[in-house]
Write a structure and sequence with these properties.
By secondary structure, the protein is mostly beta strands. It is built from three helices and 38 strands. Strands 28, 30, 32, 33, 34, 37 and 38 form a seven-stranded mixed β-sheet that branches. A six-stranded mixed β-sheet has the order 1-5-4-3-2-6, with no helix packed on it. Strands 20-21-24-23 form a four-stranded antiparallel β-sheet. A hairpin with a 2-residue loop joins β3 and β4. This is Oncoprotein induced transcript 3.
Length: 521
């Protein structure tokens, strides 16, 4: 049970004086809110510095009914005016006793706390005159009757047609509000978003400096910061690599602060002009999620005043706290091509995402079904009676993600658009009954066995494999990865769909090999 009084939405702290709390002990167990903590999680945005912490976590969605069973809901943490600056997915269930239980994930950073809330008890209809007194409860506007028949839960207006908002809808207590993306402002109707016309209107939506240029305007950043892709927000430069994330923060921003990541043991190192922090997808409290067509890795750089003067002359501080969200985006879909074995250099596939970042895979050929020792130094010659052991291997193993091998097909040359091709896997389904899949050590790795084969024709002594991979979140019950085998209906018009897929794959290819087939007995 979660019953701490400070966890309630009515408990407010002084952000600069009070010590905030953190739910770092919570890690995937089922919890119920009781006592002075409240009846249930609030389903509306909670302002920062409530619930005994800096960034209170609320439930972004309605509570389920008992017959719904276990449902997934988004949980949001509010901070700096953003009602959902961080988010995660939790499980919620309505119990027969009229209460709710929640399977809560560990917050990615401190200071985050799951909030509890006391919901109002409904009024029994006071019937006068000739009407019938049914004893039914009546809840006030903006609330709805809960499963216990007496608690009035907040009604989430955003779940119905997005609240009528043209862009973002934020649920509030007994109400809601519309918001607009960066660079746009809310119109007079309070629902429609309009383009900002110039610097005179909300500083043009710029986070720092707005400069008028003839009939338009542009945003500019202080030295050491760069303009983000929205062309309005200034951000710290972030370099996203397959094995590391590098953040370089100008010393002018840092002052006399000590910088660290979500895991406070990961600290910044000064080189005189910048403070640099390097970390990986698996370290320092980095959280990896799958959102739409991207893999998103996030962390938080926190700066707190130094306890003693630094050796580089830091003897004053100009701010009490510095918070810098760090985000790297990686594409979800990859295509890798290879001969029966990886080439001698064994180079990984590294695909630049539309925004930032790479997430590499290799196609490895292994010596046996233990999948421990790949061929590295030489290209083996396989006989038709041999077994071929191959696997999709991520260069970085990240928990919370899984892969689906959407397709694997073979060609007699390294060209992916070969007319002659043979599918082993298609639409996530095994096309050749001789293909055997092995249980892998994690959700990203895939291992297969298939009898060695060759293409008809005496000159066809080489085989190349091409595999297409999709990355999903493990907890996404309705993701394409969770669906597994799903055969698609092909258009009778012919090869348009397949050609489109081939053209897409051809832009993201790593080719190696070949392997020769030994036809001698």
């Amino acid at each position: 049970c979660l019953n701490e009084p400070w966890r309630n939405t009515d408990h407010q702290i002084n952000g600069s004086r009070d010590q905030p709390t953190c739910d770092s002990h919570i890690d995937g167990e089922w919890y119920r809110f009781t006592g002075m903590a409240g009846d249930a999680m609030p389903t509306f945005c909670i302002p920062e510095n409530h619930c005994g912490t800096h960034a209170p976590i609320w439930l972004n969605g309605s509570h389920p009914r008992e017959l719904d069973g276990i449902v997934q809901r988004q949980a949001c943490a509010s901070f700096k005016g953003n009602c959902c600056l961080w988010n995660t997915t939790i499980d919620v269930k309505a119990c027969p006793g009229g209460y709710y239980v929640y399977r809560l994930t560990k917050p990615s950073v401190c200071f985050h706390v799951y909030c509890g809330h006391f919901y109002d008890i409904c009024d029994v209809v006071d019937c006068h005159g000739s009407c019938l007194d049914t004893g039914d409860c009546m809840c006030s506007l903006g609330t709805t009757l809960g499963p216990d028949g007496q608690t009035c839960l907040d009604e989430n207006e955003c779940e119905q047609d997005n609240g009528g908002c043209s862009e973002f809808c934020v649920n509030l207590k007994n109400s809601y509000r519309c918001e607009c993306g960066i660079g746009r402002t809310l119109g007079k109707d309070g629902k429609t978003c309009e383009e900002i016309e110039g610097c005179h209107n909300n500083n043009g939506g710029c986070s720092h400096t707005c400069i008028a240029v003839e009939d338009t305007y542009q945003c500019e950043c202080p030295r050491g910061l760069v303009l983000s892709e929205d062309n309005h927000s200034c951000q710290v430069p972030v370099l996203c690599k397959s094995t590391s994330i590098e953040v370089s923060i100008p010393k002018d921003l840092v002052g006399g602060l000590d910088l660290s990541l979500s895991n406070a043991s990961c600290k910044g190192v000064s080189n005189g002009t910048h403070v640099n922090i390097n970390f990986s997808l698996k370290s320092c409290g980095t959280v990896v999620d799958v959102v739409n067509d991207k893999i998103i890795a996030t962390n938080m750089v926190t700066g707190l005043p130094k306890q003693t003067p630094g050796s580089n002359g830091d003897i004053i501080v100009r701010t009490s706290k510095l918070l810098i969200p760090v985000t790297c985006e990686f594409p979800r879909q990859y295509t890798i091509s290879e001969g029966y074995v990886t080439n001698l250099k064994n180079s990984p596939l590294e695909i630049m995402s539309r925004n930032r970042g790479i997430f590499p895979f290799t196609l490895e050929i292994f010596k046996d079904k233990e999948f421990d020792e790949p061929y590295r130094d030489s290209l083996p010659t396989l006989k038709l009676r041999d077994s071929l052991y191959f696997g999709i291997e991520p260069m970085v193993h990240v928990s919370g993600l899984e892969t689906l091998v959407e397709s694997c097909f073979a060609t007699p040359t390294s060209k992916i658009d070969e007319i002659l091709k043979y599918y082993l896997i298609q639409d996530g389904c095994v096309s050749d009954d001789s293909v055997k899949q092995y249980t892998s050590k994690d959700h990203l790795t895939k291992h297969f066995q298939v009898p060695v084969f060759k293409f008809v024709g005496k000159d066809n002594k080489e085989v190349f494999l091409h595999c297409r991979i999709l990355v999903c979140g493990v907890l996404e019950e309705r993701s394409r990865c969770a669906q597994g085998c799903r055969r698609r209906m092909r258009r009778s018009a012919g090869m348009e769909e397949e050609e489109e897929e081939t053209n897409h794959m051809a832009n993201h290819i790593l080719t190696g090999g070949p392997i020769r087939i030994d036809m001698d007995e």
